[in-house]
Amino acid sequence: MKEILEVIIKNLVDDKEQVSITENTNAKSVCYEVKVAKDDMGKVIGKQGRMAKSIRNVIKAIAIREHKKVTIEFLD
């Protein structure tokens, strides 16, 4: 899942070196903390959070197959 999230995020941003994704795992849940450059944060979140919501939906659909709960946090 982390690799897919990384591919999605890196294709949205201009500064690909600034992308960092931290994975925090529990027994049944996974939390991803996504950090990008300040200039690229708007591209990742999108208008009214639509892009962020879409990214979350894709990753949650993958997580259902693995029987895990996923949360994604976009950090400054």
Q: Mind explaining what this structure looks like?
A:
It is a single chain. This protein is globular. The protein has three helices and three strands. The model has no long low-confidence stretch (mean pLDDT 94). 42% of the residues lie in helices and 26% in strands. The two termini are 22 Å apart. The protein has a three-stranded mixed sheet, with helices on one face. The protein has one domain: GMP Synthetase, Chain A, domain 3 (2-Layer Sandwich). The chain is an alpha+beta fold and 76 residues long.
Outline of the structure:
This protein is α+β, with helices and mostly antiparallel strands. Helix content is 42%, strand content 26%. The protein has helices spanning 2-12, 41-45, 50-65; strands at residues 20-25, 29-35, 69-75.
User: What percent of the residues sit in helical stretches (DSSP H or I)?
Assistant: 40-55%
* Main sheet characteristics: 3 strands, mixed
Query: Would you count the extended β strands for me?
Result: 3
CATH superfamily, called what? K homology (KH) domain
Structurally, the number of domains stands at 1
Poorly predicted spans:
none
